Amino acid sequence: MVAGLRPLFAMQTQRLARRTNLGLLLLLALVLVTGTAGLALGTTTSRWALVGHGAAAFALIALARPKLRIVRGGLRRHRITRGASLLLAALLLTSFTFGLLHSTGLLRELRGYTTLAWHIAIGLAAVPFIAWHVCARRTKVRRTDLSRRSLLRAGVVLGSGAAGYATLETALRVAGLPGAGRRFTGSYSAGSGDPEAMPTTQWLLDDVVEIDHNSYTLTVSAHDGAERRLGLAELAAHRDAVDAVLDCTGGWYARQHWEGVWLHRLIPAVGEARSLVVRSATGYSRRFGVDDLAALLLATRAGGRPLRAGHGAPLRLVVPDRRGFWWVKWVTAVELSSAPSWWQPPFPLR
Q1: Could you tell me if 204 and 193 lie in one domain?
Q2: What CATH number corresponds to the domain at position 256?
């Protein structure tokens, strides 16, 4: 009788493994999409992306128990790819741990990098292994996967993830942990109202540029190809101002009073241009729609004081409601373009 039941047990085990792997794959995709959206967006609309990111991460933990049963069976088979699978599991667990440490505020920096940066970097390192795992162990979607029972199970897993995330947020407030005060993007306040205390960070491989203020010029290219060159004294004579939050994807934010000149004053007519490119002395650049002109400030001062080199002196772009990588530092050129504003990578590649 026991021997007769073995095929049934094996079939149930295979079914559980397939459904668990399919659920993990969908949740990992959700974690990646919501995490990317949370980094790219700086408005309150990204709050829901980040809530979804946290809930999906806890939902992954909810599937850990059935996945462990599958892993135990796989380890007994001594596959040659076992090491890569274990490395993938270690990367995902480590990324989750760093994300949790950042969310709670219990540890916010390690070896000169924020725990959020570690969370992102390790998570990205896991992506090639996830792709390999999917290709090596393909799981086809079947019609039964969309049955009422399957959808109810998926709802339970997602509900568990949402409950786990809500429990964490409640615990942070009850315990008075630093994470309770983080911004909706997950960033912590650093130097708000005090530019001198604001961190100095650059995108990827850029270094701080020391620019001679006496010889500095800004090149503004119009839609007809004509160029204007403006010195720092002319730019600094303007006193346009805006209170805006610089929210860095590294996990910190600072609200400052920025002064400078609205970009639309320097480009009164856009002609047939569809976008404008703001370029840095480092070669870094970001492209904006011409409709954004009225919301872009070229700042020469912050908190009533001239910018420091590390903060983009002598001229940096201020882009309210956008993440820090849009705030181009050491601006040397602004040019109109016929290309659309989306004609660029969503994140800078250098």
Answers
A1: yes
A2: 3.90.420.10
Check whether residue 83 and residue 114 sit in a common domain. yes
The tally of domains found in the chain comes to 2
170 and 77 together in one domain = yes
| Whether 247 contacts 187, CB under 8 Å | yes
User: Tens-of-pLDDT digits for all 350 residues of the chain?
Assistant: 444 444 534 444 566 567 778 888 899 999 999 999 999 887 777 789 999 999 999 999 888 877 777 666 666 666 666 778 889 989 999 999 999 999 999 999 999 889 999 999 999 999 999 998 788 766 666 676 667 777 788 888 899 999 999 999 999 999 999 999 999 999 999 999 999 999 988 777 778 999 999 999 999 998 777 899 999 999 999 999 999 999 999 999 999 999 999 999 999 889 899 999 999 999 999 999 999 999 999 999 999 999 999 999 999 999 999 999 999 999 999 999 999 999 999 898 77
Residue that finishes a domain, picked among 155, 186, 217: 186
On whether residue 6 sits in a domain, the answer given is yes
